[in-house]
Amino acid sequence: MRNSDLKNIMLKKYLLKKLKFDFMGYPFKNINSLSFHHVVVSRCECEKNGFDTGYYLWNLALLNRKTSHDYLHIIEDYDYDMFEDINSELFDMIVKEQVTIENIMYINSILESFEREYCGHTRNGHPLIKDSYTRRIILYKDIFK
Hints:
Strand content: 5-15%
Helix content: 40-55%
Order of helices and strands: HHEHEHHHEE
Distance between the termini: 36 Å
Shape: globular
Number of strands: 4
Number of helices: 6
Mean pLDDT: 91
Low-confidence stretches: none
């Protein structure tokens, strides 16, 4: 199956076009800004374990490439436990086959903890936590009414 077909299946299945936010609660304007995040088996481990490239519905979450996806991999580098906690929530949504406010709220609390702990840190001379990383849909709670 082509990746574009897989993305379309996920957009419909998880109602992401209607929600206008990804699996971590980050808004997106264009579906082309969404990328696949390997949740269960990382992309680099897929071939080693016989999963080809790992593009399977049970292994993927759709994330905004420039915000949530980049941010999640920064978190992976700095706090692997938080990264795993977020992956666990992503996997929970995959199992339930829906993006839920409860999962988004829990992910948001993990992200807030990361932001408190790493506020002011830099990476290659740039802030570790970009302003765009803190702009999540949960801040606009009226969207869930």
